[in-house]
Structures are given as structure tokens and as C-alpha cells.
From TrEMBL:
Species: Agaribacter marinus
Protein name: D-3-phosphoglycerate dehydrogenase
Pathway recorded for this protein: Amino-acid biosynthesis; L-serine biosynthesis; L-serine from 3-phospho-D-glycerate: step 1/3
Xref: Gene3D superfamilies: 3.30.70.260, NAD(P)-binding Rossmann-like Domain
Every ACT domain range: 321-390
Function: Catalyzes the reversible oxidation of 3-phospho-D-glycerate to 3-phosphonooxypyruvate, the first step of the phosphorylated L-serine biosynthesis pathway. Also catalyzes the reversible oxidation of 2-hydroxyglutarate to 2-oxoglutarate.
Short name of one Pfam family: 2-Hacid_dh
Classification via SUPFAM superfamilies: ACT-like, Formate/glycerate dehydrogenase catalytic domain-like, NAD(P)-binding Rossmann-fold domains
Molecular function (Gene Ontology), one example: phosphoglycerate dehydrogenase activity
Catalysis performed (reactions): (R)-2-hydroxyglutarate + NAD(+) = 2-oxoglutarate + NADH + H(+); (2R)-3-phosphoglycerate + NAD(+) = 3-phosphooxypyruvate + NADH + H(+)
């Protein structure tokens, strides 16, 4: 029986993927084989040695200490693109809220509840509505920083609305480049993008090079009156620098999914409670993808959408499967094969792949009589985890 421990509310559509005869899934599982979570922060959790995999039902893995887990041979997964449409739609809402008097207009209407005569109410509203006029998105320029799953959908949406789109992504993958519309203009650097855009939307992961990438220096380059939209992470912007740019009217509005104390009381900040991915569809997509990835990893050792391990998949053969991870240094695979030879174990098929400092291996072998093989592999220098699947 495999045990999966959950944090956060995970969609039942995902939890139902785990068959009850093979899996025990609960928020209080002890000695779990896998963790399934959303935004719960794992940095302060002591993780049982039983854990083989951590799956983030979502995109951002900044709540998971990935580097520490890599050293322990724990595979970390996310669910690329599974919530991208939900975020894209809220980006549109954010841009519309920043451009039209939608929120103040609705608030104003609710203050007129004591006018009981319909004709008088209509007359008052018509007389006052000029305070809530705005401008259109069509014809304006949107800059997108980060053109991955979300950024590329935001680009398509903006082009369909008649906006011009400028993008910046120095780490763009080939796959993401294929997805991108040829109408997206490429900015040479972030400053060039900031200088010419009426709206700028951030879609980068929270990693060392992106922390506070929107700081005082960057905002000094911004086109006056720009709207900054941040559905990525709070740490991508320096909140003090954003507040300062709003004070100086360099920024017209800051739209974000990550409220900060410094923004309270400001009418030029539209802050939402991290609900970019909070749609039934996104929650289901993420949970189902994460559950499938955990099951294929636990049952077959296959890896898809890991953020620290290489993608590896090998069809199952008769016999048994040995799976091990190791530091990516010479001789480890050779030493493991020597152990198998010493114990008279016949190899049927194998795959070895590396990613950065890590290597991952699947070896299918004829059924072994000797129970000490796994212990022997475990004691080889640089092997970080090993297991046997029957
Ligand atoms: N508000 C929410 O609820 C919500 C939901 C989903 C994702 N997110 C956030 O959005 C981020 C992006 O999600 P995604 O699904 O598009 O991820 P993704 O991995 O598909 O795309 C991220 C893109 O950012 C690019 N990038 C990396 N460093 C960069 C840099 N320094 N400058 C410019 N581009 C850079 C990458 O090359 C990649 O193309 C996530 O990491 C997460 O933090 C938030
Ligand atoms: O990175 C993500 O996928 C989002 O921030 C979603 O977070 P959530 O799963 O807590 O809604």
C-alpha cells in the first residue's frame, strides 16, 4: 500500500485518481511515500525519510525546498500549464479593472441604496457616471515578462483584444517559443520593454534572478502612467519601490494577486487574495496531473514534469525494477552494474539520464533471489536513493 500525504484542499477529481486498493491518501498520513500539495510551505516541515516524491498541484515551487530534496534523492513535480488559463482570465480582469471605473462605479452604486425612486436613481447615476469613465485596451501596448505557459496565453489574449504585445524571456524554452505568436515583438532587455509599454504583466517563477526584478532601477525606466500586473509572486517586485513609483505617478495602478501591508489604503492598488488559479477547472487539472505523475513515479519509477529530476520513462518488462538516483559523478552506474554482476542478476533493460548535479536510473532485471542487492546498491558512494519495484 502506498501512502500519500496531502496539504491544502486538493480537488476530489485528483484524489479520486488514486485507487483505494493501492493507495491511502490523507492529510495525516504517517511515513508517506509522497506529498501532494498546493501553496503550503514545506521549508519548515521535517520530511519523513519515507518520502520519495513531492508533487505541487500548480506551477510555482517556491514553497518547496527543491535543492535540499534533490540532495536527498526526492523527486519534485509540478503541473505545467494546468492552471494557465485561469490566470490568463484573471489578468484580463485585472487589466479591465485598472482601465475602467468598474470597482469605484460599483461601490458608488451601492452608496445610493437610500434613493427609493427609480427615476431619481437613474437621473443621479447618469449625472455622476462621468467620474467612472476609463480607457480601452485596444491599441495599447502590453509587455509580458516571462513567456511560458501563462505568458503565451496572455499574449494570445491581448493580441485578440487588438493590443500590441512585446515580450521578454531570456530563458524561453524551444517548446514555449513554438507556442508563441509571431506577432509578439521581442524586447532585447527588460528595461527596453518597460520603456514602451502601457501595461506590463509578470509571468516569471520566483527564483534567485527574478527576486525584486521590478525594483527602483527598473521602475525608473517605465513609461509614465504604466499599469503593472503581478499574478506571478510577491517577491518578484520590491513593494516599497512600487509604492514609490505609484506616489510619483510613474505607475498608474498596481494590480496584484499578493497584497502587502504597504499597499493598504491605496486606491491605485487592486489586490486580490492569491486567486489566480482558484477555478474549479484549474484545481481539477492540477490535481489530476499531479496525482497521475505521483502514481507513475511510485508504481513504475517514470518521471514526467519534475523540476529537479530528468524526464524518464521506460516500458515495464517481466521481472523486477530497480530505481536509483545518484550524484552526477563518474563510475556510479558502473559500480551498480558490478554489484548486479557480483550477485548474478541479469539486466533486461535500462535507462540512465542526468540533469545538472543529479542522475536517475531505471534498471529492469530478472527476478532476484538475493535480498541484499538493494542494500549493496544503497551503500555505493554517491547513490542518494534506491528502491525495488516488483
Ligand atoms: N497567481 C496564481 O495563482 C498563479 C498561478 C499559476 C502560476 N503562478 C506563478 O506564475 C509563474 C509562471 O507560471 P507559468 O505556468 O507560466 O510557468 P512557466 O514555467 O511555463 O513560465 C515561466 C517563464 O518565465 C521565464 N523566465 C524565467 N526567468 C526569467 C527572467 N529572469 N526574465 C524573464 N523570463 C524569465 C521562463 O523562461 C519561462 O518561459 C509560476 O512560477 C508561479 O509563480 C501564479
Ligand atoms: O503557482 C501556482 O500554481 C499558483 O500560485 C497557485 O497556487 P494555489 O494552488 O495555492 O492556488
Amino acid at each position: 500500500m502506498y501512502k500519500v500525504k496531502t496539504f491544502n484542499l486538493i480537488s476530489s477529481k485528483g484524489l479520486e485518481r488514486f485507487s483505494r486498493d493501492k493507495y491511502e491518501v490523507s492529510s495525516d498520513a504517517s511515513q508517506p511515500h509522497a506529498i501532494l500539495l498546493r501553496s503550503h510551505k514545506l521549508h519548515n516541515e521535517v520530511l519523513d525519510n519515507s518520502v520519495l516524491a513531492v508533487a505541487r498541484a500548480g506551477a510555482g515551487v517556491n514553497n518547496v525546498p527543491v535543492a535540499d530534496y534533490s540532495k536527498r534523492g526526492i523527486a519534485v513535480f509540478n503541473t505545467p500549464g494546468a492552471n494557465a488559463n485561469a490566470v490568463k482570465e484573471l489578468v484580463l480582469a485585472g487589466m479591465l479593472l485598472s482601465s475602467r471605473g468598474i470597482k469605484p462605479g460599483i461601490d458608488h452604486v451601492s452608496t445610493l441604496h437610500n434613493i427609493s425612486d427609480a427615476a431619481e436613481l437613474h437621473k443621479t447615476l447618469e449625472a455622476q457616471k462621468k467620474q467612472f469613465s476609463g480607457s480601452e485596451l485596444k491599441g495599447k501596448t502590453l509587455g509580458i515578462i516571462g513567456l511560458g505557459a501563462i505568458g503565451s496565453l496572455v499574449a494570445d489574449m491581448a493580441l485578440a483584444l487588438g493590443m500590441k504585445v512585446v515580450g521578454f524571456d531570456p530563458a524561453l524554452s524551444i517548446e514555449a517559443a513554438w507556442r508563441l505568436s509571431s506577432e509578439v515583438q521581442r524586447a532585447e532587455n527588460m528595461h527596453a520593454l518597460l520603456a514602451k509599454c502601457d501595461y506590463v504583466s509578470l509571468h516569471v517563477p520566483a527564483i534567485e534572478p527574478t527576486i525584486h526584478m521590478i525594483n527602483a532601477d527598473a521602475l525608473a525606466q517605465a513609461k509614465e502612467g504604466m499599469v503593472l500586473v503581478n499574478f506571478a509572486r510577491e517577491s518578484i517586485v520590491d513593494p516599497e519601490a512600487v509604492a514609490n513609483a505609484l506616489d510619483k505617478r510613474i505607475l498608474r495602478t498596481y494590480v496584484c494577486d499578493f497584497p502587502e501591508p504597504v499597499f493598504y489604503g491605496r486606491e491605485d492598488v487592486i489586490a486580490m487574495p492569491h486567486i489566480g488559479a482558484s477555478t474549479a477547472e484549474a484545481e481539477e487539472n492540477c490535481a489530476m496531473m499531479a496525482a497521475d505523475q505521483i502514481m507513475d513515479f511510485l508504481e513504475n519509477g517514470n518521471i514526467k514534469n519534475s523540476v529537479n529530476f530528468p524526464n524518464v520513462a521506460m516500458a515495464r518488462e517481466e521481472g523486477q525494477r530497480i530505481i536509483f538516483a545518484n550524484e552526477n559523478v563518474p563510475k556510479v552506474l558502473g559500480n551498480v552494474l558490478s554489484v548486479l554482476a557480483d550477485h548474478n542478476v541479469n539486466v533486461i533493460d535500462m535507462v540512465n539520464k542526468s540533469r545538472g548535479d543529479l542522475a536517475y536510473n531505471i534498471i529492469d532485471v530478472e527476478k532476484m533471489e538475493n535480498g541484499h542487492v538493494i542494500d549493496a546498491i544503497n551503500s555505493i558512494e554517491h547513490v542518494t536513493s534506491v528502491r525495488l519495484i516488483n
